[in-house]
Amino acid sequence: xxxxxxxxxxxxxxxxxxxxxxxxxxxxxxxxxxxxxxxxxxxxxxxxxxxxxxxxxxxxxxxxxxxxxxxxxxxxxx
Amino acid sequence: xxxxxxxxxxxxxxxxxxxxxxxxxxxxxxxxxxxxxxxxxxxxxxxxxxxxxxxxxxxxxxxxxxxxxxxxxxxxxxxxxxxxxxxxxxxxxxxxxxxxxxxxxxxxxxxxxxxxxxxxxxxxxxxxxxxxxxxxxxxxxxxxxxxxxxxxxxxxxxxxxxxxxxxxxxxxxxxxxxxxxxxxxxxxxxxxxxxxxxxxxxxxxxxxxxxxxxxxxxxxxxxxxx
Lengths: 78, 226
Description:
The complex is a heterodimer.
Chain A: E1 2-9, H1 16-27, E2 39-45, H2 52-63, E3 69-76
Antiparallel strand pairs in A: 1-2, 1-3
Chain B: E1 6-10, H1 17-28, E2 33-36, E3 48-51, H2 65-68, H3 71-82, E4 86-89, H4 91-99, E5 105-107, E6 115-123, E7 139-146, E8 150-152, H5 155-163, E9 167-171, E10 182-186, E11 192-195, H6 213-225
Parallel strand pairs in B: 1-2, 1-3, 3-4, 4-11
Antiparallel strand pairs in B: 5-8, 6-7, 6-9, 9-10, 10-11
């Protein structure tokens, strides 16, 4: 089973990297980009027997830092 | 002076472990135990544990994230919860926040760039085990060298830290965008200190300054008294 975990910074947490990317886009001449927030995508290949609760636990214990990040689990059709 | 039982934990990618061990030996007179990340146990009856700076596990995932889940950290967390003093410097501070021993998180510096220079720090709490050797209101000079030292916690946590005297050090100027210019924080019990600046790099005149020495002296003397 393919699982995608999207990890993003919580609203209100400063994202210096996102800001630098936004400035760089401006520098390339792309107008109208108000904000960029950088995140992270994990693609997991897991056994069918891995439960939703276990996936949730993986996110909370390692993949995301719950102090600063949110996560979203997406199961991908094979 | 012998008998001060300290340990320096080395993770793959730690690079300030020798400086930390050297500082502890010079101040306490006893060489620390050197403990590897894969060790499941710490030496018995430790007086002090130090988590050094560096780039543990190449900063993969998040700075300090993988190290904080390594076997030895379970033992460090248990020791910290029993009251053993734990000092985390730079990457060691990141490991402490990732492990949950200290609140908050360390984000990328607000200026994006790696900052490597000496900075002025205000010693905000001179009552703790680690800072008792500094005079109230002291401003000291300690080097920093980090890319991810931008301390973040929500306002409720920051208010609690300030209210409980758990901000040990504050930058005298904006260095990395840290919330309320916080450079080092204590846990609720006062036996765990995390800080981005490197006191072990300011131990003797040859380092260009010795303002970090009092931190180690405070801990060694405080523990000898206890």
